[in-house]
Amino acid sequence: MRLEQLASLFVASRVSGDPHTAVTGIQTDSRKVRPGDLFLCIPGLVSDGHDYAAKAQEAGAAALVLERDVPVSLPKLFVNDARYAMAVIACKFYGYPSREMKLIGVTGTNGKTTTTALIEHILRDRKFRTGLMGTISMKIGEQWFEAERTTQEASDLQMNLRKMRDAGADYAVMEVSSHALELGRVKGCRFRTALFTNLTQDHLDFHKTMEQYREAKGLFFSRLGNEFTDEPDATVYAVLNGDDEASAYFAKQTSAQIIRYGFGPDADVRATDIRMSSRGTRFTVSAFGEEAEISMRLVGKFNVYNALGAISSTLIERIPLSEIANSLERMSGVPGRMETVETDSDYLVVVDYAHTPDGLENALAAIREFCEGRIITVFGCGGDRDRSKRPLMGAIAARGSDYAIATSDNPRSENPEAILREIEPGIEAEGMGRDRYELVADRREAIYKAVEMASSNDVVLIAGKGHEPYQIVGGVQHHFDDRLVAQEAIRGRSK
Questions:
Q1: Residue 80 annotated as part of some ligand binding site
Q2: 303 labelled binding-site residue
Q3: Which domains occur in the chain, in start order?
Q4: Is 110 within any annotated ligand binding site?
Q5: Rounded to an integer, what distance in angstroms lies between the CA atom of residue 345 and that of residue 15?
Q6: What is d(CA 407, CA 443) in angstroms, rounded to the nearest whole number?
Q7: Which sites bind UDP-N-acetyl-alpha-D-muramoyl-L-alanyl-D-glutamate (predicted)?
Q8: pLDDT digit string (tens) for 122-135?
């Protein structure tokens, strides 16, 4: 594709140098540039792509997209907003892949990973060819890849959607983060269904207020619409959690057809008669005049919501409710989401990604439903992130646990002890005495302590990191997997 073709996508743009320059790829990371690539100079929160234009040239970049001039002798396409241009160029370069398959996006504070996994599983069970993008992994064809972030940059996103379609995908299911919406990463994507899980406090280091956070999520729904067709296969849907008050705001933002799910009588897809145990959850689902009994290995009312979202999204695709129920029963679980670790006795160890106040509260409530002994909770808060949620996390751990160990999550550049000191007031505010909690900065030590003190019928909840196989300390990423450390602690205890 030539530079002049890309320039024609913008009303306000200017080419400096040879407009006939051919580009064979798109890149935003100078370390990944290959000969012939177009390098997009994206101003970021930490670094500015304009500062790496020379390195991109050294690596063989054919041309640059930029907002301001740099002393590099390459053909240049000047635009007003390089991040917006990246999304537009990527869609054009890769041939608008989302127009060739059905794209289902899931947004919300919690539940995105589980909900997308459930949707993909149900579709795959029906022999549809699927692609999946999310926090844990990405699936292209029959290959699985580790994910770098919840929602990829627009250039990588469009490239991978193209790979999915070329591999035969009928559907692509993806998590859509608030960061991605705010930064325009999904611009140009044509969504068949946009699903909302819930909205609770998180990412206020980025969005600053809950109102701004809600507005970022609202961008997902305001861009949906059914302007050009009333054909069933082309209708666009907004699937909303009717029990979350933010849904009313999103409903006003969209012209898509709305389907509401929840526990209330007004829900289109409703769960009743919910029964939980340590082995899973059962409930009755009512949807558009039909009923089915759902039995799944996922634990907790919050996972009932996730299942309802998945049921709603796949009913849209005219999959019979009875077959959806069968698929959910066959679903084994999602890595790092209420994942149990095998123990040497009759206590239980659960690893969960709960890293927000709402997520931790839900995980503890789910465990309390079936726990016959004590709940021992290991939890922490990430460094360089929203500090206001630290005492909230402490308070929730204190309310929901019989014993709590506050520890490091990903401290990043912050002092782990300082983070713990900001968590502690929340614990104290709930009246939990020092005989029922401790502050242990070393996460491995904290997990070992929790496992060691567990006795018959107790549940140890290791919260915060879930599937993540690393810990970021002092800006350095170290290998660390809660599940493996828990297994080590269990083996050490049994000796």
A1: no
A2: no
A3: 3-83 (3.40.1390.10), 97-330 (3.40.1190.10), 339-494 (3.90.190.20)
A4: yes
A5: 69
A6: 6
A7: 30, 150-151, 177, 185
A8: 999 999 999 999 88
Of 398, 354, 350, 346, the residue nearest 372 (C-alpha): 346
Is 135 assigned a ligand-binding role in the annotation? no
Tens-place pLDDT, residues 199-252: 986 545 554 677 787 787 788 888 886 544 455 567 899 999 999 999 999 999
- Would the annotation count 113 as a binding residue? yes
- Neighbour-count burial of 148, counting CB atoms closer than 10 A to its CB (0-12 exposed, 13-18 middle, 19+ buried): exposed
For residue 116 the two structure tokens come to 């997308």
Task: Tokens 């999602």: give the residue.
Answer: 334
Q: Is residue 111 a known part of a binding site?
A: yes
Averaged pLDDT, 324-344: 91
* Chain-centre distance for alpha carbon 240: 17
> What type of residue is 181?
L
Check if the beta carbon of residue 460 is closer than 8 Å to that of residue 347.
yes
Give the residue carrying structure tokens 């490239």.
Answer: 159
- Supply the pLDDT for residue 279: 84
Residue 226 assigned ligand-binding role: no
456 carries a ligand binding annotation: no
| Adjacent-strand bridge partners of 407 | 380
Give the chain's radius of gyration (CA, Å). 24
Is residue 494 a known part of a binding site? no
Specify whether the CB–CB gap between 380 and 419 falls below 8 A.
yes
User: Is 114 annotated for ligand binding?
Assistant: yes
Q: How far apart are CA 212 and CA 313, in angstroms?
A: 27
From residue 127, alpha-carbon distances to 130, 171, 252, 297, 327 in Å are 9, 11, 35, 22, 12
Q: What whole-number distance in Å separates Cα of residue 247 and Cα of residue 260?
A: 9
Question: Does 411 carry a binding-site annotation?
Answer: yes
| 295 marked as binding residue | no
Q: Please count the residues of the chain.
A: 495
d(CA 355, CA 477): 18
359 is in an annotated binding site: no
Is the entire prediction scored with pTM above 0.70? yes
Question: Do the annotations mark residue 312 as ligand-binding?
Answer: no
Known binding residue 332? Answer is: no
* Both structure tokens of 151: 């929602």
The reply to whether 241 sits in an annotated binding site is no
410 is in an annotated binding site: yes
339 marked ligand binding residue: no
